[in-house]
Amino acid sequence: MSAKDSKPYWPPQVVPPKGAPNILLIMTDDAGYGVAGTFGGVIPTPALDRVAQTGLRYTQFHSTALCSPTRAALITGRNHHSTGFGVISEQATGYPGYDSVLGVDNATIGNILKQNGYSTSWFGKNHNTPSFQYSSAGPFDQWPSGMGFDYFYGFMGGDSNQWQPYLFQDHTQIFPWVGKPGYNLITDEADNAINYIKQLNAAAPDKPFFVYYVPGATHAPHHPTPEWIEKFKGKFDMGWNAMRDQIFANQKRLGVVPQNTQLTPWPDICRNGTRSTLTARSCLPARPKCSQLTSPIPTMRSDAWFRQ
Predict the structure, then answer these.
(1) CATH says 12-307 is which class?
(2) Which helix (H) or strand (E) is 48 found in, with range?
(3) Which of 272, 251, 285, 274 is nearest to 37 (CA)?
(4) Contact 112/124 with Cβ under 8 angstroms?
């Protein structure tokens, strides 16, 4: 057969269904169910309010009470032990269900959407890579790129300095704060995500995107910029007892908790809000990472999956 008798051919490409939606999945770290104003909290979240008013608020809240396990469950839809994350990656033991290796048999939402024609990206915290693989040397099969994400811009591990973060762009460690006094990772991540979405829309406006946006802002270390500190100065002076009651009343008003829900009573030693060192230590709620609570009250983690 000669060249003139041949017909050009390119392998077909997978394209998403017509009208496939863009997806933005935002997960906040160590922030309880009752923090955002959208769910009754005292922190104004007007953008989330607008989304909720035209969509759904999910109220069946479930968490593994730990960071890496909850995230593994969220991005795979599977029990965290099935994904190797029975505990956070830094405490992996090497035993089945606890080795911090997601494995090829656990597809992530990034894998699935990418194979169905989506552009996929991950911004912010990555706590689902084995801690012994945190370097530019790889291997990278357990990094976001190996989990189905075309682009990654974020930090590795449970937490990072927000002024000088342990930051990577794809597989390369970067240092964007150098020569930039006042640099803050939270602002940088938001700007990077916005710019990336603009580039996608300019290059392939018909191709839907999936953005996994997971900032570390509300996880220690807490490094807000001065303007945000000033903005909330004095907002919490009512104390934790009064704020707890206020949030609870807001949640009932919004209908995100049943009207007959009752708050767990404080122990007698805490009832009067005594502020001695001993009493304060006794009365503070357990840190969210250690909490085993399963009802939607302010001490719950919000980096969890939601079921209707």
Answers:
(1) alpha beta
(2) helix 46-53
(3) 251
(4) no
Q: Measuring CA to CA, which residue among 79, 30, 26 is closest to residue 214? A: 26
Which long-range contacts (C-beta less than 8 Å, at least 24 apart) are formed by 168-173? 168/136, 170/145, 171/136, 171/138, 171/140, 171/143, 171/145, 172/136, 173/136
Domain ranges of the chain: 12-307
Cβ atoms 251, 40 nearer than 8 A: yes
pTM of the model: 0.84
Determine contact, residues 57/38, Cβ cutoff 8 Å.
yes
Kindly provide the residue ranges of all beta strands, DSSP E only, lying in the chain, ordered along the sequence.
Answer: 23-26, 60-62, 119-126, 151-156, 167-169, 172-174, 209-214, 305-307
Polymer length in residues for the chain: 308
Q: Please give the angle made by the CA atoms of 53, 237 and 67, to the nearest 5 degrees.
A: 60
Q: How many CB atoms lie within 10 A of CB 134?
A: 18
For 58-103, write each residue's pLDDT tens digit: 888 677 888 999 999 999 999 999 999 999 999 999 999 999 999 8
pLDDT score for 271: 63
Alpha carbons 223 and 221: distance in angstroms, whole number? 6
Beta bridge partners of 121: 151, 211
